[in-house]
Design goal:
Layout lengths: L4 E4 L4 E6 L5 H12 L7 H6 L9 E5 L5 E12 L5 E5 L3 E2 L8 H15 L4 E5 L2 H4 L12 E2 L9 E5 L10 E5 L14
Parallel strand pairs: 5-7, 8-10
Antiparallel strand pairs: 1-2, 2-3, 3-4, 4-5, 4-6, 4-10, 7-9
């Protein structure tokens, strides 16, 4: 059953729906436009490379013509060696021509609600606290955690969906999600 949430933007309505295989090319083009060529070098990308998003947690915002206007995905991670499971959110992106239309906020609310509905305990992301703070994310619970590779510590944010989910969480985030079929493992440099 596909769940659709309508939001009214400055112009047409947008629907938040599950991402499909047919959305891949449009999603990648959108990410290139919104984030630029260095998007694949970020520490968060190391946790996504060769993996599939968490089951049921990849969404697009469709415009009135069915085009992809925004995207968000969540990924399975483990907090440190043998630590608890969590989700890593990202990337969140909206077509640059549609900024400030409420699409990013609607995608965030939809993704958080679905993660909670599916029983996940915590979501982490690397981002700006002034933006993500309005959804409940903060750096208050991430002091003992680290990303693999370079990142700005104050930008590692978390949202507990279950109270106490991050109690005592320490270590470097590790990818734990489903591997892409036919993806050859890459060796770390």
């Amino acid at each position: 059953m596909e769940m659709s949430v309508e939001i009214v933007a400055h112009a047409p309505a947008f629907a938040m729906v599950a991402e499909t295989v047919a959305d891949v090319a449009a999603r990648e083009a959108l990410l290139d436009r919104a984030m630029g060529p260095k998007r694949k070098t970020k520490s968060s990308e190391k946790l996504r490379r060769g993996r599939r998003p968490s089951e049921g947690l990849a969404f697009v915002a469709r415009d009135a013509t069915g085009g992809v206007a925004g995207t968000v995905r969540l990924w399975d991670v483990t907090l440190g060696d043998g630590g608890p499971a969590a989700l890593l959110l990202g990337p969140l992106a909206v077509d640059p021509s549609l900024k400030s239309a409420g699409i990013g906020s609607a995608l965030m609310r939809h993704a958080i609600a679905e993660a909670a509905r599916l029983g996940h305990a915590a979501i982490l992301l690397v981002g700006d606290e002034p933006y993500y703070g309005r959804f409940g994310f903060s750096a208050a619970r991430t002091g003992g955690l680290a990303m693999p590779g370079p990142y700005e510590r104050h930008r590692l944010l978390a949202l507990e969906l279950a109270q106490g989910a991050l109690d005592g969480a320490t270590g470097t985030l590790k990818a734990s999600g489903r591997k892409l079929k036919g993806h050859a493992p890459t060796l770390a440099a």
